[in-house]
Write a structure and sequence with these properties.
With 153 residues, the chain is an alpha+beta fold. It is built from 1 helix and 11 strands, in the order αβββββββββββ. The strands form 3 sheets. The chain has a 4-stranded antiparallel sheet, with no helix packed on it. Strands 5-6-7-8 form a 4-stranded antiparallel sheet, with no helix packed on it. A hairpin with a 2-residue loop joins strand 5 and strand 6. The N and C termini lie far apart (83 Å).
Amino acid sequence: MKKLHFWLFSLLLAIYVFSVSASTVEAVSVNTFQVTTDGSQQKDAFIYKDLIAYDSLSDIWGYNLDTRENFPIIQKEGEQYITDFYKNLIVYQDIAPDSSTDDIRLFNIKTGEDRLIIGEPSSYSSGGTNGEYVTYLDGGACGSLYAYHIRKK
């Protein structure tokens, strides 16, 4: 008889927990919207104020939160992958066509200046910036970390 009471109690408890959690899920409301719709892979999104910058089809795109428009930021031969976004500066890895090494570049959205920070013969990755310096790895995940002063070059 005790086993029957235990199983009955367990069943009633499970039904209660399920009904409470189901009603809790229904009460939660989130205001979301889709940023991209073209069906290709988008990744590595960064956001600063009203601009989202992200990778799409080996190029770098932007999405303006005010106008809700997508637009290309960096489109050129080879592959480009965003690694950081700060104010008007985008740090990205650039792989030229027929190359196996990654360069680190700095693109200024306002001026359109596209500056090579460090290039061949090695492979560089994981660039970042605070607006004064650009940091990057030389040699991959186990490589050495370097810093480049933007104004002093």
